[in-house]
Specification:
Structural class: mainly beta
CATH topology: Immunoglobulin-like
Distance between the termini: 47 Å
Strand content: 35-45%
Oligomer: single chain
Number of helices: 2
CATH architecture: Sandwich
Order of helices and strands: HEEEEEHEEE
Shape: globular
CATH class: Mainly Beta
Number of strands: 8
Low-confidence stretches: 4-21
Length: 165
Amino acid sequence: MSSFKKFCLFAMIPLMWTLVAANTPIRQCADSSYPQPLMVQIDECDELPCELWKGTEAKIDIQFVATRNTMRKLSAEVHLTSLGVTIPYDLEASRGNVCDNLLHGAYCPLDAGEDVTYQLLLPVANSQPEVPTRLEVRLLDSEDGNRVVSCFLADTRVKKPSSRK
């Protein structure tokens, strides 16, 4: 094995361990037929509930697998449930466009089995109530009848920035 290959191997192992160790715990969506993502990272949250800070953007990285060949149009759909009431969260088109927000040089069209990471920047409004909130994120194949490509649930809690530790 060349020195360069050894260096790359040893440099990647700590990075991979950091990524694996820092995953946010998630739950299956109500419809268990929906595929779960391979990994979700909400900001720096590694235990639930994840804290979302008012007046900021929560960074949510979602690693998922494409379910069919030539996927060109994927969108994100977000729902928030607080105090038993579920409401859709209206994302700006630019944020909800999965293909335009893929990381690590990935781009659409995607092919079946391709493993990619989408970054969702979710604005947290100052008016959001400071109560436990269940976050549901679905990634939809817009060209295949909005079929769910990936779905997960995570428990969050909205807080004022001044209450940060």
